[in-house]
Amino acid sequence: MPPHDPHSYTDLSQARIEHIAFRLEVDFEERRIHGRASYRLDRPCRGPLDLDTRGLDILAVHSAGAPLRWDLGADEPILGQRMRLADLGGRREVEIQFRTRPEAGALQWLTPEQTGGGQHPYLFTQCQPINARTVFPCQDSPSVRFTYEAEVLAPTPLTAVMAAAVRGAEDAGPARRFRFSMPQPIPSYLFALAVGDITRRDLGPRTAVFTEPYLADDAAWEFAQTEQMLAEGERLFGPYDWERYDMLVLPPSFPYGGMENPRLTFMTPTIVAGNRALVNLIAHELAHSWTGNLVTNATWEDFWLNEGWTTYAERRIIEVLEGPEGANLRAQTGRNTMFRDMRNFGMDSDPTRLKFSQKGIDPESVVSYVPYEKGYSFLVALERVVGRSAFDRFAREYIGDHRFQSLTTEAFVDYLQRKLPAAARAVNLRAWLYEPGFPDDAPSFPSSLADAVSERLFDYQEQGRLPQREQVADWTSSQTYLFLQMLPRPLPLEDCRTLDQILDMAHTRIVVNLSNFLNISIRSGYQEVLPRVEALVGSVGRMFVIEPVFRALATTPWSRPLARPLFERYRERHHPITVSTIEGVLHREGL
Ligand code: BES
Ligand code: ZN
Fold it and tell me: What is this structure's pTM?
């Protein structure tokens, strides 16, 4: 069988991991997890078994109580090292003892000062796309699923949480032992653990929020609509198969907006903005419970199947909360962000395609809004051919028929051609899926909320009239976001200053809007924002927020010399993924 996944040593002709029992000891002094994992395979294993590892120390391997031979291959830059286990002689069980390294790509170890609460250290994982292999040896391909149980030893008084069911906790000397089990089979990238000063607030019968104590009340308010969204998701996409939907709000350095770890989504603390403006992020991660976690992309080349479908599901949930006008407004800002990413990569470049060969390419380096928004537009194009109710039936069936399975883009096309032949014929599948750029006949997303913003932009661009305070007073933060996205840059300095006041940018808690405003300000030479730039990149780890700011700093003559020193001042605080992304931006600009 040819290698099916360019980002993994997994050989699908071999046995697959079916279940793992973990014993993990979290050591903040050494910044290591000391681990033991007992694997059960899906069939008797003869011949070698290949696993993924990267920067992982392997200490011993046993099968049926006796040592088993194993070796590690050459260390490849993206893949890491293949771990090859010798013939298991027809057995299905093997145990590996290992420990992580302090620089493991999936782990961030925070000092107390780096947390929101400031009192205790914190550890969290981020395994998607290919970092699980830095935590434990595994078939680190989204096409392999396993269940697991885990015992996690964490120093008192810290709490361990996992994207799994809680089975209990007890004192164990100077530590506490937390027990979990994950009865639903997951791909390795959905393995997740966090340890810190973590408390819990119930939101509804199936939903709760976990956070550092200082944020608990605010987070509970911000997330109050979650139970309703869960019910909406079930109405649209079928039964919720994961029993609970809890959320963990992470410390500020969390590099993403959210990560859909099953049963326990990980969230940026910037979502707690005091106005529920970022509910789409909850809707998005919740929607992954169906699209992504239940029906999973077979490889990272098929990432759009996860994110395009989830963006579609997210907007269907948002439509119920904010109406079609609100959902379409968000679709417009999403598409603008996609075009920004396409321009950054080059309009003809591979990452503007929904599917392209990623052999030799780090999947993290090509993450962008393209799979989200081009994928979303493609699905809306299909929906508009057959109409809502036929498409809804198709979506529910697609999910029902692929529960706990992975599929490729090509398998999706086959399924589409069988189930919705009219739609498959009416749209140009090849252009949508495999060609670069963006189709001219893509669906548009009319919204009166967006039209109101366009009028103010027209006033400004055609008549040089900036909006009056009253004209923007009732805007939602998404409208402000669209306005900021569409403003030309650079702007005259005076206009930056006026907008700063009219939009009350000094007090906004919507950091994505602030990020956009700072981007404009830097490019316009509005240097008064510098302290706010420093405060933002020093306190927010979400890459989507700070990367554009560094891009602006690095490409504008007056700020160019400031970019590298600014980054160096805060490098230590940031997640390894954020550090390498910002390094990439500075490096490409010759800094
Ligand atoms: N699964 C992604 C986050 C991710 C993507 C992690 C690629 C690692 C590699 C998550 O569901 C996501 O899409 N987050 C977005 C949310 C937004 C689109 C609402 C984010 O982090 O901004
Ligand atoms: Zn997503």
Answer: 0.98
